[in-house]
């Protein structure tokens, strides 16, 4: 292909960076040459530039499939702020009128973000079919893998979609994918010749620290003690929303010098943005959060990531701890666990997957409809989820299997006793395998936390060959000491309480407050 | 406490004629004709839709806490129907000042309050940031319509941020100063400016020692107060009234009801419409009651004769109850529930026009 202007010039013009970060240029060149590529890049390495830049300089349209609506919307905003206007995010929050306007002008966009669910929609597909789709990007590609820690059944239909769109170039991206997940991604997309671009995810400026305590009370004491010693921006990860809220409250009373808040997916939009941005802005020091926090967060000076509960997989741990120290300065990942904690994750895995009773209920429900000669499924997804008492993801998983095995076709039930029995057995097997797989993943975590060898080595060894030595301290098995840790500390914000009149004046930049800051 | 006060006031006005879940639907702003009609009948229209973030679970918790505290007691054996205890009557009297009930104008502003507030928030954030030459900020809201509106206004203001901010200050200050300091303070802390993001619901509830429900209600109350003050004297508040100017104040009839209305005007019968739209007859009835409430020239005579209307009104005065069942039992058996509801809807409209 003809390329007269160096890629670096585009990078400077559209993104204000002088040079590419590791991996970006290679991946971009691959797709510009029309090669399918699987890119595994660590979090915070600028994955989005890998497709945004080709989208800007190539003719035709780029589609980005992403499961994270808020992340999509953030990226669209950033691009628009950078004067790139040919971009749109199509999501389920749009009202029908808005969506129709976007659909009729679809051809005018160079970059279209869309959720995997919406990409299954007839109306959208029929518009896209008539356009020149140059590149399809599968963001968070590990979601396609049944072994991935965030399996999304909708992703499995992407290979069909690629066919309908006349076989565009494909870029699959993830920050976390074991070799088996990589194989699964390539296989599911039906692109055996995908070019692999795998980059190491180890972080030499993060030290790993494992501490066993007796219970949650001791965890709290430990955390309080640490934040009395260090005044630093930090995230504390929880698996339960309620515990995150409660702990934020406890910490607030014991650490009056720190500004602490909680964050989870159950909060309303306005509150979520405000907590996230207060943290970015330095108005908050510590956030007690669930895994909902952090995607797309670009704060470079987070110094400490505490895990209050055990992660379910090492992959998710690597991703979460990787939010520390993006600026390259000394940071720590601390995992606190008590013997009691070992039971929680197993239960979580059990609740995540549908079980045999759910499966039996599903087939009873379908059989019932058949007996009543109601071959068309008229209930909505939500109604069925309620009826069977299963989660959205669980129903999607079932539905995908039913469609795959021809039991449901275009919303009609097709009855064949033999086929049904066979399918039921198959689904049972898949569920069993997935449970065992997740259980194994959990054992990896258990093994890691009890490991006596170098934690850095043991954490990364399944994901890459070799790793860089620690720039600062290494890990608690290699002699990590809190007393030798010297992180960049932040200043104490004075919690001066002033009148609303003064605050309003200051906020609106009136009068004497005009020149401050 | 504010929320408790509102629940108690509702129970008191409902007079044992509605269950507690009708209070939930009322404050949540359910767009059902029953809820809106109740709001009118029991003079609870000020509370309509003032707490859209409420969950059923939290509402029930609040309710049982009030029972435990001896402020509410069940009426007879009827499930979910409550009445005030003497203690509650005194409690309401003693707390009248703190309950902010006069702030609320739910039915009037429920449709516009949120858009107004989001516009105000994003406008302040945009003006203060751009005044400081800071063009990369993450907007507090990603509501598409609000963003588009602020963009247009921003172009008009065109480098006159200083003046616009000054006017905003003067206008907001002059309204907020009429309120108790605490309420004004909660409102101001919620606003976002340059390098200063507003506090979340939970942060406000910690700082001011309020329940999360009360934080929502104070914010909504202050917003309604701003809106009603602006509406009274638009000339005094040029910027603020500009923000509300094009927001549609009227409670809109539902989309579905407007389709029914169109078909009625083409002389289709209720049965035909029900069949055409694959909707239950009762749903079409609901639509017509909705039209009766909001359409100025609704022809009630087409559905019930003048004599029968008068009969319903007479009974209404005699039984002194808005409970449909009570009325139905006392009128001619030929008169249907649907007809009674129509008479109530139209009649209520006349009453509220009077005052």
Task: Describe the structure in brief.
Chain A has helices at residues 7-15, 24-32, 49-57, 69-81, 96-104, 122-129, 158-164, 179-189, 216-229, 241-254, 269-281, 314-321, 344-352, 356-371, 381-388, 392-404, 417-450, 455-460, 500-507, and strands at 37-40, 61-65, 87-90, 111-114, 133-138, 169-174, 195-198, 206-212, 234-237, 260-263, 286-289, 304-307, 331-337, 408-409, 412-413.
What does this molecule look like?
The complex is a heterodimer of chains A (about 525) and B (about 350). With about 525 residues, chain A is of the alpha/beta class. Chain A has three domains: about 5-200, 3-Layer(aba) Sandwich (Rossmann fold), CATH 3.40.50; about 205-345 and about 445-505, 3-Layer(aba) Sandwich (Rossmann fold); about 355-420, no CATH class. In chain A, about 40% of the residues lie in helices and about 15% in strands. Chain A contains 19 helices and 15 strands. Chain A has helices at about 5-15, 25-30, 50-55, 70-80, 95-105, 120-130, 160-165, 180-190, 215-230, 240-255, 270-280, 315-320, 345-350, 355-370, 380-390, 390-405, 415-450, 455-460, 500-505, and strands at about 35-40, 60-65, 85-90, 110-115, 135-140, 170-175, 195-200, 205-210, 235, 260-265, 285-290, 305, 330-335, 410, 410-415. In chain A, the strands form three sheets. In chain A, strands 3-4-2-5-6-1-7 form a seven-stranded parallel β-sheet, with helices on both faces. Chain A has a six-stranded parallel β-sheet with strand order 8-13-12-9-11-10. In chain A, helix 13 runs antiparallel to helix 17 and helix 14 (about 355-370) runs antiparallel to helix 17. Chain A is globular and about 70 Å long. In chain B, strands 1-2 form a two-stranded antiparallel sheet. Chain B is an all-alpha fold. Chain B has three domains: about 1-100, Arc Repressor Mutant, subunit A (Orthogonal Bundle); about 115-245, no CATH class; about 255-355, no CATH class. Chain B has helices at about 1-15, 20-30, 35-40, 55-70, 85-95, 105-110, 115-130, 145-155, 160-175, 180-190, 200-210, 210-230, 240-245, 255-265, 270-275, 280-295, 305-320, 325-330, 335-355, and strands at about 70-75, 80-85. In chain B, strand 1 (about 70-75) and strand 2 form a beta hairpin. At the A-B interface, helix 4, helix 11 and helix 19 of A face helix 7, helix 9, helix 10 and helix 11 of B.
């Amino acid at each position: 292909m003809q390329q007269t202007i160096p890629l670096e010039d585009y990078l400077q013009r559209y993104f204000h960076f002088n040079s590419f970060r590791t991996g970006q240029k290679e991946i971009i060149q691959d797709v510009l040459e029309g090669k399918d590529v699987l890119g595994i890049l660590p979090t915070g390495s600028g994955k989005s530039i890998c497709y945004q830049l080709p989208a800007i300089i190539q003719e035709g349209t780029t589609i980005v499939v992403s499961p994270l609506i808020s992340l999509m919307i953030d990226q669209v905003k950033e691009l628009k702020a950078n004067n790139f206007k040919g971009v749109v995010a199509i999501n389920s929050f749009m009202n029908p009128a808005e969506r129709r306007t976007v659909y009729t002008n679809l051809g005018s966009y160079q970059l279209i973000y869309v959720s995997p669910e919406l990409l299954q929609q007839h109306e959208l597909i029929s518009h896209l079919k008539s356009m020149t789709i140059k590149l399809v990007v599968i963001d968070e590609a590990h979601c396609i893998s049944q072994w991935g820690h965030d399996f999304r059944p909708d992703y499995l239909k992407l290979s069909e979609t690629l066919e309908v769109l006349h076989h565009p170039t494909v870029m699959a991206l993830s920050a976390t994918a074991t070799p088996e997940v990589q194989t699964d991604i390539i296989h599911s997309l039906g692109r055996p010749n995908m070019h692999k671009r795998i980059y190491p995810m180890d972080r030499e400026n993060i030290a790993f620290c494992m501490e066993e305590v007796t219970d949650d009370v001791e965890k709290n004491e430990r955390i309080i003690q640490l934040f009395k010693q260090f005044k630093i921006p930090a995230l504390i990860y929880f698996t339960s929303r309620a515990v995150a809220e409660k702990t934020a409250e406890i910490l607030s009373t014991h650490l009056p010098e720190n500004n602490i808040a909680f964050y989870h997916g159950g909060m309303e939009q306005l509150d979520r943005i405000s907590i996230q941005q207060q943290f970015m802005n330095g108005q908050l020091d510590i956030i007690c959060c669930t895994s909902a926090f952090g995607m797309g967060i670009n704060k470079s000076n987070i110094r400490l990531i505490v895990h209050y509960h055990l992660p379910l997989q090492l992959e998710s741990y690597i991703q979460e701890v990787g939010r520390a120290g993006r600026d390259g300065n000394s940071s720590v990942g601390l995992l606190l666990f008590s013997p009691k904690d070992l039971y929680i994750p197993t239960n979580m895995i059990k609740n995540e997957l549908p079980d045999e009773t759910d499966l039996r209920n599903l087939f009873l429900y379908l059989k019932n409809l058949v007996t009543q000669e109601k071959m068309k499924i008229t209930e909505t997804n939500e109604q069925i989820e309620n009826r069977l008492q299963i989660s959205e993801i669980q129903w999607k998983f079932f539905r995908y299997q039913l469609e795959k095995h021809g039991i449901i076709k275009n919303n009609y039930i097709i009855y064949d006793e033999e086929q049904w029995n066979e399918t039921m057995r198959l689904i049972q097997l898949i569920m069993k395998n997935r449970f065992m797989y997740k259980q194994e993943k959990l054992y990896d975590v258990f093994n890691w936390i009890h490991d006596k060898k170098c934690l850095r080595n043991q954490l990364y060894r399944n994901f890459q060959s070799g790793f860089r030595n620690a720039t600062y301290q290494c890990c608690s098995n290699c002699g990590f000491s809190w007393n030798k840790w010297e992180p960049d500390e932040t200043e104490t914000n004075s919690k001066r309480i002033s009148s609303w009149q003064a605050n309003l004046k200051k906020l609106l930049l009136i009068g004497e407050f005009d020149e401050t800051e | 406490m504010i929320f408790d006060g509102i629940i108690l006031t509702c129970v008191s006005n409902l007079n044992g004629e509605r269950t507690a879940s009708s209070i939930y639907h009322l404050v949540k702003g359910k767009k059902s004709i029953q809820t809106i009609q109740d709001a009118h009948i029991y003079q609870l229209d000020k509370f309509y839709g003032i707490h859209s973030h409420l969950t059923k679970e939290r509402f029930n918790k609040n309710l049982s806490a009030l029972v435990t505290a001896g402020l509410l007691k069940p009426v007879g054996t009827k499930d979910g129907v409550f009445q005030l205890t003497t203690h509650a009557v005194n409690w309401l009297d003693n707390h009248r000042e703190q309950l902010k009930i006069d702030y609320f104008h739910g039915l009037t502003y429920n449709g516009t309050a949120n858009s107004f507030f989001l516009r105000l928030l994003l406008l302040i954030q945009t003006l203060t940031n751009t005044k400081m030459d800071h063009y990369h900020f993450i907007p507090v809201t990603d509501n598409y319509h609000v963003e588009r509106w602020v963009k247009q206004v921003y172009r008009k203001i065109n480098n006159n941020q200083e003046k616009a901010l000054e006017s905003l200050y003067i206008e907001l200050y002059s309204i907020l100063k009429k309120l108790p300091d605490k309420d004004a303070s909660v409102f101001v802390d919620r606003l976002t400016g340059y390098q200063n993001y507003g506090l979340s619901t939970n942060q406000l509830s910690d700082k001011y020692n309020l329940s999360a429900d009360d934080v929502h209600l104070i914010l909504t109350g202050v917003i309604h107060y701003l809106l009603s003050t602006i509406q009274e004297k638009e000339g005094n508040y040029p910027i603020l009234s500009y923000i509300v100017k094009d927001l549609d104040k009227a409670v809109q009839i539902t989309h579905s009801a407007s389709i029914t209305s169109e078909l009625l005007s083409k002389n289709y019968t209720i049965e035909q419409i029900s069949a055409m739209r694959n909707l239950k007859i009762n749903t079409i009835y609901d639509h017509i009651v909705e039209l009766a409430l909001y359409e100025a020239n609704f022809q009630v005579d087409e559905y019930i004769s003048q004599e029968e209307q008068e009969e319903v009104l007479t009974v209404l005065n005699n039984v002194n109850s808005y409970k449909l069942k009570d009325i139905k039992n006392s009128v001619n058996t030929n008169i249907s529930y649907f007809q009674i509801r129509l008479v109530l809807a139209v009649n209520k409209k006349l009453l509220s026009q009077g005052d």
